[in-house]
Amino acid sequence: MSSVQSWVADFSARHQQLPGATLPWLTAMRKRAIDRYAAEGWPSPKKEDWRHTSLALLEQASFDTQAASHDVAGMVRALRADENGHWLVFVDGRHMPSLGQLGALPAGVRLGTLADALAHEADLAQQAFGSETDGSSAAALNLALAGDGAFVHLARGAVLDEPVHVVFVASGDRAAAFPRNLYVAEAGAHGNIVEHYIGREGNVTFTNTITRLQVAADARLTHTRLQQEAPQAFHLAGVDAEQDEKSYFASHSISLGARIARHDIATRFQGQRAESLLNGVYVADGQRHVDHHTLIGHDQPNCVSHEHYRGILADRGRGVFRGRILVAPGADGTDAIQRNDSLLLSKLARSDSRPELEIYAEDVRCTHGATVGQLSEDSLFYLMARGLDETHARNVLIYAFVLEGLARIEPESVRRRASRAVRALMPGGSMLEELA
């Protein structure tokens, strides 16, 4: 049985037990989604959007959506440390209330699971759920098999003073999880949501996750993904945002784990004077492969988008970036910046970068660019002349390369967390901690 056939069989066996199985609209959509996946199979390099990323290793592996979970209480405690906020924890796709801590929520804020939302707020969940035509066939498979995920609703004018932390732990042997997260910020609402993806060292797991966000007029929503799964894991992710007038949406993608990690990130302006920031830092060492594909749809006039991704590539690591800014007819006043910079630390490391501008309006200001390079010998000599040995000097320069991307992350507590995770991957991480 092929990988595609096994997932279709899994759907046939379990779809009647999935949350929301009694909702006619969701049942029909799930059926269309699995039919699409069965017809298309996994995305392949024959497709332009997947030209540099092969899922052959994923297709050859077998996974279990019902794999027994391991005790991960210690991992979650170590992740949380002494940080406050609101914590929602899922282990192998299943909600674990005992590991979370919701705390006292501000007025107008609802935080829970997708399963609860489908049971008690189906109309609201339906408006944000998306459809089987969104994204690739992998996204369609997520829609078909998604059993749970995070649900955050910020009512008009609601303000989250502390971040919401949503933790996904891949713990079981050959475990597969299909989280689907829905975040809705109504007019004037402000919030910050952090998704953590972690796993047990040495474990081969599969995470296929989709996050959908709706940012209404004058709302501000910041979304950060910290992907730190085991080096043998497979991670496919999609982030899809819709923005109304004068809204602000920031996406921060920090990718530090998984054998193959693919991130599709898109936002669309549905009202004038909206702003977005797409920011990413990624590290690919060993034989790891990290792919970021972004799309910013400037469908309305006078909108602003800034996009910055920086990658560190070592050993046989490979980084892929394809960013597309689409300026529709009539979207005059568009201000868009797109940039991807890669640092190669070995002769076998590889970077494939393709920033794109597609412009159908006249009065716009758009720039894009990409760089690929190595550490500056002059800068290395400068630091060594001031007392640092070569290893520490190299690590300081490497960290400085991604510091600009890390500095864009807000709030400070999340920025510190992401910075620590990056420094921990470097041989001289302890010294960098002292410098930080």
Give the overall silhouette.
globular
Total DSSP E strands:
20
Rounded to the nearest angstrom, the radius of gyration is 21 Å
Tell me the structural class. alpha/beta
Main pleated sheet: 10 strands, mixed
- Contiguous low-pLDDT stretches (5 residues minimum) are none
Distance between the termini: 52 Å
Report mean pLDDT, rounded to a whole number: 95
- Number of spatially distinct domains: 2
Q: What portion of residues belong to β-strands? A: 35-45%
The largest beta-sheet arranges its strands as 2-1-5-8-10-12-14-16-18-20
Report the total helices.
11
Helix content: 25-40%
What would you say this structure looks like, in words?
- This protein is of the alpha/beta class and 436 residues long.
- It folds into 2 domains: 269 residues, no CATH class; 60 residues, no CATH class.
- 25% of the residues lie in helices and 36% in strands.
- The chain has 11 helices and 20 strands.
- The chain is globular, with a radius of gyration of 21 Å.
- The mean pLDDT is 95.
